[in-house]
């Protein structure tokens, strides 16, 4: 069985430094003793329940580190093979009749339905 080369304790240290969370504060958020946080920071791996609790406590998705697709976990927006070319956005707006009249929406909708809006 292949093992990951991720030392989760080191990653947790980096995240708490970036988020400026102290060990004591993290212990409080997790409901554990500060010594337990110290222990976590020395670990190569931890169980999934603890990883989930840490993700919630630090608002950081640690699970992405273990993605089997390296491009998912490591790619920047520019490098990502999963770029969106076009997006469809649906928006529902409730307008009063006088607002529709001001915007000439009835005619614009009719033109679109008839194919004139292109």
Automatic annotation (TrEMBL):
Domain HTH cro/C1-type, first and last residues per copy: 12-65
Annotated coiled-coil segments of the chain: none
Listed CDD domains: HTH_XRE
Record-linked Pfam families: HTH_26
GO molecular function: DNA binding
PROSITE patterns recorded: HTH_CROC1 (PS50943)
Protein name according to UniProt: HTH cro/C1-type domain-containing protein
């Amino acid at each position: 069985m292949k093992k990951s080369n991720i030392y989760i304790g080191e990653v947790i240290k980096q995240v708490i430094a970036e988020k400026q969370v102290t060990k004591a504060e993290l212990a409080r958020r997790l409901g554990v003793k500060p010594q337990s946080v110290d222990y976590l920071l020395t670990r190569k791996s931890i169980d999934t329940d603890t990883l989930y609790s840490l993700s919630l406590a630090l608002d950081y998705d640690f699970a992405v580190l273990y993605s089997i697709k390296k491009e998912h976990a490591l790619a920047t927006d520019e490098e990502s093979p999963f770029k969106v070319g076009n997006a469809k956005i649906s928006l529902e707006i409730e307008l009063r009749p006088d607002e529709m009249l001001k915007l000439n929406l009835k005619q614009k909708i009719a033109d679109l339905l008839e194919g004139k809006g292109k």
